[in-house]
Amino acid sequence: MADTHALATLVQALKGLPGVGVKSASRMAFHLLQHDRATAMQLAQALSHAVAHVRHCERCHTFTEADICDTCADASRDHSQLCVVETPADQSAVERTGTYRGLYFVLMGKLSPLDGIGPHDIGLAKLRQRASEEGLREVILATNFTAEGEATAHVIAEMLKSLGLRVTRLARGVPAGSELEYVDLGTIAHALVDRR
Amino acid sequence: MADTHALATLVQALKGLPGVGVKSASRMAFHLLQHDRATAMQLAQALSHAVAHVRHCERCHTFTEADICDTCADASRDHSQLCVVETPADQSAVERTGTYRGLYFVLMGKLSPLDGIGPHDIGLAKLRQRASEEGLREVILATNFTAEGEATAHVIAEMLKSLGLRVTRLARGVPAGSELEYVDLGTIAHALVDRR
Ligand SMILES: [Zn+2]
Ligand SMILES: [Zn+2]
């Protein structure tokens, strides 16, 4: 696109965003430079600022700008429960249910041998240490119900077995509001097995 | 997502990119901060650099870092022909055919009354002045074959009528390599009208 090196470099950098191919990257670069340089500058500043200031909570590994995140620092929460999730977005989903008052451990990923993501990458040693702390009674495994999420939950359950904790998993079942006719058979089968 | 203001600001800025909603923006922010801070820094720098250095060619309006772009400055090109395109990407498509050796005028958009884009926004006064220069014999209208591209071509053709130039339009027709059976009827109708 045109003869500018600055533009080619920008298209290349935008292509580094997940889900953005060369066509989208070119369209984004054109839009920013032709119609919205203010957004381009805001994005540049937001990126620099986030890279400089966002790090991981020492207790739960989620993103924070402090040593310890607001959730971990909240004395009013139930420190006897630890809910293990894959990402901050998953943590946010559990929070929004308004039904959980315990603490979290955020893996910031999931075991994925094919992508070279092993126990170290998702902080399992740290989780083991965290789970050994006095006062903790239950670890709830809330990784996703995908093949990798299930495998991750299984590995963590095995790891925590010897600690004398209650290790639970979110129930599988039929989503609220759905009609059985339209629910996939695997889900119905799991709901039968996990019936209350 | 988590409790950091820097992260929320970054998600908001990424949402400013065309075609990026809040879900994609969150996924991008997570990916950059968790797995690829080098790309985040490169993107920040590429944005700042492009905003600071990319401007418009004084002759053809395309993006350039100099006063006049390489194409306009190329004395070996045919200065008697001017091809009018909507974007640098369209210019690049015409260039890649290897069949055109004239100059360009890049509108950097198209007439679009509903979006508030009028003649001034696509530099029509500049184009008129450019088309009046000595030595120019032909203006080829290569705007897109969409409703807005056709309307833009029509307005430009009307504007240049009085200048005594040859004003031509890219031929509409059946795409090379296609089977008539699968070509839409409007395209076949146009190919019949424009038959050689
Ligand atoms: Zn924390
Ligand atoms: Zn130029």
From TrEMBL, chains A, B:
<dbReference type="GO" id="GO:0006310">
    <property type="term" value="P:DNA recombination"/>
</dbReference>
<dbReference type="Pfam" id="PF21176">
    <property type="entry name" value="RecR_HhH"/>
</dbReference>
<dbReference type="InterPro" id="IPR006171">
    <property type="entry name" value="TOPRIM_dom"/>
</dbReference>
<dbReference type="GO" id="GO:0003677">
    <property type="term" value="F:DNA binding"/>
</dbReference>
<feature type="zinc finger region" description="C4-type">
    <location>
        <begin position="57"/>
        <end position="72"/>
    </location>
</feature>
<dbReference type="InterPro" id="IPR034137">
    <property type="entry name" value="TOPRIM_RecR"/>
</dbReference>
<comment type="function">
    <text>May play a role in DNA repair. It seems to be involved in an RecBC-independent recombinational process of DNA repair. It may act with RecF and RecO.</text>
</comment>
<dbReference type="InterPro" id="IPR000093">
    <property type="entry name" value="DNA_Rcmb_RecR"/>
</dbReference>
<keyword id="KW-0479">Metal-binding</keyword>
<dbReference type="InterPro" id="IPR023627">
    <property type="entry name" value="Rcmb_RecR"/>
</dbReference>
<dbReference type="Pfam" id="PF02132">
    <property type="entry name" value="RecR_ZnF"/>
</dbReference>
<dbReference type="InterPro" id="IPR015967">
    <property type="entry name" value="Rcmb_RecR_Znf"/>
</dbReference>
<dbReference type="GO" id="GO:0008270">
    <property type="term" value="F:zinc ion binding"/>
</dbReference>
<feature type="domain" description="Toprim">
    <location>
        <begin position="80"/>
        <end position="175"/>
    </location>
</feature>
<keyword id="KW-0234">DNA repair</keyword>
<dbReference type="Pfam" id="PF21175">
    <property type="entry name" value="RecR_C"/>
</dbReference>
<dbReference type="GO" id="GO:0006281">
    <property type="term" value="P:DNA repair"/>
</dbReference>
<protein>
    <recommendedName>
        <fullName>Recombination protein RecR</fullName>
    </recommendedName>
</protein>
<keyword id="KW-0863">Zinc-finger</keyword>
<keyword id="KW-0227">DNA damage</keyword>
<comment type="similarity">
    <text>Belongs to the RecR family.</text>
</comment>
<dbReference type="Pfam" id="PF13662">
    <property type="entry name" value="Toprim_4"/>
</dbReference>
<keyword id="KW-0233">DNA recombination</keyword>
<keyword id="KW-0862">Zinc</keyword>
